Amino acid sequence: MPKFVLVMLTRVLGTAGPKKAAKAAAATTGKSARYYPADDVSRPKHSRAKKHNPPKIRPSFTPGTVCILLAGRFRGKRVVCLKALESGLLLVTGPYKINGVPLRRVNQAYVIGTSTKIDVSGVDVSNIDDAYFARTASASSEGEEEFFANDAAKPAVVSDTRKADQKKVDASILKVVESTPLMKNYLGSKFSLTKYDRPHSMIF
Amino acid sequence: MGFSRYVEVGRVVFINHGPDAGKIATVIDIVDQNKCLVDGPEEITGVSRQVVSYRKIALTDLTVKIQRNARAKTLKAAWKEGDTLAKWEGSSWAKKLEAKKKRSNLSDFDRFKVMVAKKQKSRIIAQKIKELKA
């Protein structure tokens, strides 16, 4: 058979190619293919979509590391890292009782991990994951009329479950924190640079 | 008063530049007006015998009693005899260097502790001064 006829046939029949089809048939029955399939065989398109690899967490962040937040409304605060979440964000807490930072997620790019560690093996945060922090649908559903009503903004409401979780986590961390002298004051103070401080040559 | 530290055979010098920066060595010989031959001794200070420029060294108050071009063994014996390393470590220069090194290796929490201690110190001083003035 001339080559162009073979090529035409494969196009019409939708197989991978004349050689491949013959090979596949031979592999299954031990013989060469007796006929081509009548209908087109749908094959998945080659996809170039990127696969997400699991996020890399810097080695300086381990559960119990005291971290310095560098961005956001809590910048400068020293907080305790509890774990890394599946999304690659770090789960941190002030603890809230000490410096007002609640259980929250932070991007590790905006955090300095220090060499100071706290034993958080007694803190249970297994129930807190990325879904825990998902927004509720009603939270942002302010209607158009309400938007233009020019009334006072509704205060943010913290759910009771979050309050309870915060209390539970705080209680177990506080015990550990108070066992180290000055640790409570340290977590309560903010990090800042002063004259002659050179952050690139500082050891945290 | 004139100079008291000379570039001379047996002068202990502090190396402030290059791979041996921060170490001390002894002048063994004068090469010319720009450089000299130094030796640690290597077993004591970690500086091997080499020619260095005067620009890269600073003279200390210490000297050891050696002949020009002394062997490593003789030099080592002279250091042991004069107790030179202990003398250097006891100097305020070496102590300052040590303190500086210690400071630069502090962690964030350590710096916080230093800050607290400093505050306590100045508080005590202020109180005492107040008492003395009253």
UniProtKB/TrEMBL annotation, chain A:
Pfam families: Ribosomal_L6e (PF01159)
Signal sequence coordinates: none
Keywords: Chloroplast, Plastid, Ribonucleoprotein, Ribosomal protein
Compositionally biased region (Basic residues): 44-55
UniProt keyword Nucleotide-binding present: no
Intracellular or extracellular location(s): Plastid, Chloroplast
Entry annotated with the keyword Acetylation: no
Entry-linked Gene3D superfamilies: 2.30.30.30
One GO CC annotation: ribosome
Top-level taxon of the source organism: Eukaryota
Stretches the record annotates as Disordered: 36-56
Chief place of localization: plastid
Family: Belongs to the eukaryotic ribosomal protein eL6 family.
Listed name of the protein: 60S ribosomal protein L6
Origin organism lineage: Eukaryota, Sar, Stramenopiles, Ochrophyta, Bacillariophyta
Automatic annotation (TrEMBL), chain B:
CDD domains: eL14 (cd23702)
InterPro entries to which the protein is assigned, alphabetical: Rib_uL2_dom2, Ribosomal_eL14, Ribosomal_eL14_dom, Translation_prot_SH3-like_sf
GO cellular component, one term: chloroplast
Domain spans labelled Large ribosomal subunit protein eL14: 49-121
Sorted UniProt keywords: Chloroplast, Plastid, Ribonucleoprotein, Ribosomal protein
Source organism superkingdom: Eukaryota
Primary site of residence: plastid
Localization in the cell: Plastid, Chloroplast
SUPFAM superfamilies: Translation proteins SH3-like domain
Family label: Belongs to the eukaryotic ribosomal protein eL14 family.
Record's protein name: Large ribosomal subunit protein eL14 domain-containing protein
Species, as recorded: Discostella pseudostelligera
Taxonomy of the source species: Eukaryota, Sar, Stramenopiles, Ochrophyta, Bacillariophyta
